[in-house]
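Intended use. Records like the one below are meant for learning the mapping from a protein sequence to its folded structure. Do not use them to infer anything beyond what is encoded.
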Amino acid sequence: MAETAFDVIVIGSGPGGYVTAIRAAQLGFKTAIVEKEDLGGVCLNWGCIPTKALLRSAEVYHNMQHADEYGLSAEPSFDLEKIVKRSRKIAGQLSGGIKHLMKKNKITVINGFAKLKEGKDAPTVVVDGTDYTAKHVILGTGARARHIPQAGLEPDGKYIWTAREAMVPDSIPKKLLVVGSGAIGMEFASFFDAFGADVTVVEMVDRILPAEDEEISKMARKAFEKRGVTIKTETQASVKTSKNGVTATLTKGDTSEEVEFDRVVLAIGIVGNTEDMGLENLGVKIEKTHIEVDEYSFTGVKGLYAIGDVTTPPWLAHKASHEGIICIEKIAGENPHPLDANAIPGCTYCHPQIASVGHTEAQAKEAGYEVKVGRFPFIGNGKAIALGEPEGLVKTIFDAKTGELLGAHMIGAEVTELIQGYTIAQKLETTEHELMETVFPHPTLSEMMHEAVLDAYDRTIHY
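Structure written out for the chain above:
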């Protein structure tokens, strides 16, 4: 008879869930994890990783088209079926890797959809009619794409796509509408544009990538428009499908226009996966589909915790993982620091890449700081020029009174790899003085991080 009693049961095996389960096992808890689909959740199977595989193909194809600039010759062509197949193979490989990690850490995997009901130490977890008990239950059920049916913005699997459908296209649309300009929207705009689609991005607010520093958003818009992407801000979209595609009504203020598209990608936010689990009957507080928790992920219901996209923003995989570790270490009686959402870096893998951590310039000023701002352009960096990537910017924001690094914002080649340097600096409470005295290797893109700090204090060398 299968084991049904555990110390910890984690529901959902995405980056929050599987990391939490592994840490629980390391701490000596008898652990189980429940997954209704594939191990690794949306991130590994239909999100973070397979999209990066697609974007890598787009990057290589882009470079092939510019081979002559590097003294090379190439005849650019692509096979979409092979591109998608490579992405799916990588997703499958990583999901298999999670299966291995579960076995290695002696974590019981329970396949099926979990429901909760009243229990002794924590809610009882019911999967396919079997009751599983635990002292602690941690929800990591994630989220899914938001729809707006009244505006026709609801996926049909054929003409109107979420990220899942957009990851496995059978052809490149001639005309594509992307609704929403956050990370997901701009990544798909970048991918399809690279392979020849005529892409239009619609955003309700006054700029794309609205979570980023305004200066970075403006540079991103300029870069995308230079590549031929049409961007319409302060614009709302509603759509109707026909036999041949989609008719979109794009409305800005009092003006509307109708435009024909072959496909639409919805990237208008997420909805937490909280339905049909019995959460309301347990007294779990849910605000706009997301579960309310305290600083250690406790829901307020005895023995029940929640982490990741099903809770509060930022809705990022690495935030979910870190949140889960804090949660289980607190349960184990350790003394972890609560999550600081402002210290969670954000990355967008479009072309050009975008990365940031901490306050934007506007947020720092709104918080009452007197700021010093440093900037360094890619055109001033030898490695960027040698790579053929001279467009971009590194921006730093400091507290003028204390030298504290309040935020850092980047756009350009490989900035998603560079941002961690500033993230560590923030964690260590590094001042501008220490950053300026740090030796950065030459020639590297990281030298721009040094120069952006120097610039904030009028000491920049190479620009």
